[in-house]
Amino acid sequence: MDWDWDFVRQILPTLIQGVKITILATLLGSVLAAIVGLGIALARRSPNKAVARTVGWVAEFIRGTPLLVQLYFIFYVLPDIGILLPPLVAGVIGLGLHYGTYTAEVYRAGIDNVPRGQWEAAKACNLSARQTWTHIIIPQAIPPMIPALANYFIAMFKETPLLSAITVLELMNQAKSVANTYYRYLEPITLVGAFFLAISLISVVLLRWLERRYGKIER
Amino acid sequence: MTQWSGYFGLILQGALVTIELTLMGSVLALIMAFLAGLGRLSRFFALRALATAYIEFFRGTSIFVQLFFAYFVLPLLGLELTPLQAGVLALGLNVGAYAAEVVRGAVQSIGREQHEACIALNLGRWQGMRHVILPQAFLVMLPTFGNNAIELLKATSVVSLISLADLTFQAQVVRAQTGNTMVPFTTILLIYFILALLISWGVRSLERRMARGLDGVRV
């Protein structure tokens, strides 16, 4: 089967529709993962042991099970108990929750990496707990985390094709529907691969820059 | 009341396929990891370039797209694969690319003095690698290999989309036949989690076994 440029030109607009949804899902998922991750990281540091334990186990469970099954769970099981979500919303929640458990570890490491002396100095300066977090710990903890967080957002971007399994019309699903309509798999699937490779290579460059700019931290 | 025992047998069959895929994928990933990881450290530019291209390509595109490429596009190029072969190929090559970076990092983390000691003992490059560097580096790699194996286990759920009857696929079958979503999906989430726990437990005990007698040597 030969590569057909006319066919490529014909299907490109459809694929670009899919690209938009892919990017939208990645952005929303990243925001949700950043928030969920911070929530989990803080909950695991909670003085209440029961809360810390429970959140720790739930996070461990989410990290140990496949994203695809979690997506199915959100999309097919939740309607049974009366929560009916549109595919894209279910997908974003799945991505955000799954990667939130990973970003939680990044937050944890970032917070732990702030030297003890900083906590003690804050106490010596008579800062309250809130002031210590907002003025001392968080400003020092965030910059080294940025490359690691970006790394997970790129990983999430590469997982978005899974959303096609719960009928989100993102790039992979558009490619599959095009392929099924014309019964030509070569061009659509290759284009999807090329698209992901291109974005990943660009993001590698971006990541290197972020690391130089912010990170002393090892990837 | 539905005959759950029969359906549970179906899910267990799926679990066997998932385990089989994970094992075979891990073996391929391990081989690729050492080939590409050591390739990146080679003296020869061509080998380094080849290994880097492999790693960047498979880390840069998503497993989902690679799987579809292997299953739908390779036959058009004259390479017919069964779903199982396509699954093992995509999983092994994908995770192998990630693990290759682990191999490279671990080998580079071994101190200079070990390399110098090899030269002092008149060991060849291969001998030094085989008898001095790799045994030490392998211990550094093990924990991350464990994580990679869990990633591989989770990625196997994707093969259900190319009609391979793994856990996720069987859960969909049960869902279609019984109309119940909660039970099959909760069951497979638990099975995946238990398998992930087994892997991390196995790797940890392997690590303990291999670290025996190395106390004080490791930094």
Automatic annotation (TrEMBL), chain A:
<dbReference type="InterPro" id="IPR043429">
    <property type="entry name" value="ArtM/GltK/GlnP/TcyL/YhdX-like"/>
</dbReference>
<keyword id="KW-1003">Cell membrane</keyword>
<protein>
    <submittedName>
        <fullName>Ectoine/hydroxyectoine ABC transporter permease subunit EhuD</fullName>
    </submittedName>
</protein>
<comment type="similarity">
    <text>Belongs to the binding-protein-dependent transport system permease family. HisMQ subfamily.</text>
</comment>
<dbReference type="Pfam" id="PF00528">
    <property type="entry name" value="BPD_transp_1"/>
</dbReference>
<keyword id="KW-0472">Membrane</keyword>
<keyword id="KW-0812">Transmembrane</keyword>
<dbReference type="InterPro" id="IPR035906">
    <property type="entry name" value="MetI-like_sf"/>
</dbReference>
<feature type="transmembrane region" description="Helical">
    <location>
        <begin position="55"/>
        <end position="75"/>
    </location>
</feature>
<feature type="transmembrane region" description="Helical">
    <location>
        <begin position="189"/>
        <end position="210"/>
    </location>
</feature>
<feature type="domain" description="ABC transmembrane type-1">
    <location>
        <begin position="19"/>
        <end position="207"/>
    </location>
</feature>
<feature type="transmembrane region" description="Helical">
    <location>
        <begin position="81"/>
        <end position="99"/>
    </location>
</feature>
<dbReference type="InterPro" id="IPR000515">
    <property type="entry name" value="MetI-like"/>
</dbReference>
<dbReference type="InterPro" id="IPR014341">
    <property type="entry name" value="Ectoine_EhuD"/>
</dbReference>
<dbReference type="InterPro" id="IPR010065">
    <property type="entry name" value="AA_ABC_transptr_permease_3TM"/>
</dbReference>
<feature type="transmembrane region" description="Helical">
    <location>
        <begin position="20"/>
        <end position="43"/>
    </location>
</feature>
<keyword id="KW-0029">Amino-acid transport</keyword>
<keyword id="KW-0813">Transport</keyword>
<keyword id="KW-1133">Transmembrane helix</keyword>
UniProtKB/TrEMBL annotation, chain B:
<dbReference type="InterPro" id="IPR014342">
    <property type="entry name" value="Ectoine_EhuC"/>
</dbReference>
<feature type="transmembrane region" description="Helical">
    <location>
        <begin position="182"/>
        <end position="203"/>
    </location>
</feature>
<keyword id="KW-1133">Transmembrane helix</keyword>
<keyword id="KW-1003">Cell membrane</keyword>
<feature type="domain" description="ABC transmembrane type-1">
    <location>
        <begin position="15"/>
        <end position="199"/>
    </location>
</feature>
<dbReference type="InterPro" id="IPR035906">
    <property type="entry name" value="MetI-like_sf"/>
</dbReference>
<dbReference type="InterPro" id="IPR010065">
    <property type="entry name" value="AA_ABC_transptr_permease_3TM"/>
</dbReference>
<keyword id="KW-0472">Membrane</keyword>
<dbReference type="Pfam" id="PF00528">
    <property type="entry name" value="BPD_transp_1"/>
</dbReference>
<protein>
    <submittedName>
        <fullName>Ectoine/hydroxyectoine ABC transporter permease subunit EhuC</fullName>
    </submittedName>
</protein>
<keyword id="KW-0029">Amino-acid transport</keyword>
<dbReference type="InterPro" id="IPR000515">
    <property type="entry name" value="MetI-like"/>
</dbReference>
<feature type="transmembrane region" description="Helical">
    <location>
        <begin position="57"/>
        <end position="74"/>
    </location>
</feature>
<keyword id="KW-0812">Transmembrane</keyword>
<dbReference type="InterPro" id="IPR043429">
    <property type="entry name" value="ArtM/GltK/GlnP/TcyL/YhdX-like"/>
</dbReference>
<keyword id="KW-0813">Transport</keyword>
<feature type="transmembrane region" description="Helical">
    <location>
        <begin position="6"/>
        <end position="36"/>
    </location>
</feature>
<comment type="similarity">
    <text>Belongs to the binding-protein-dependent transport system permease family. HisMQ subfamily.</text>
</comment>
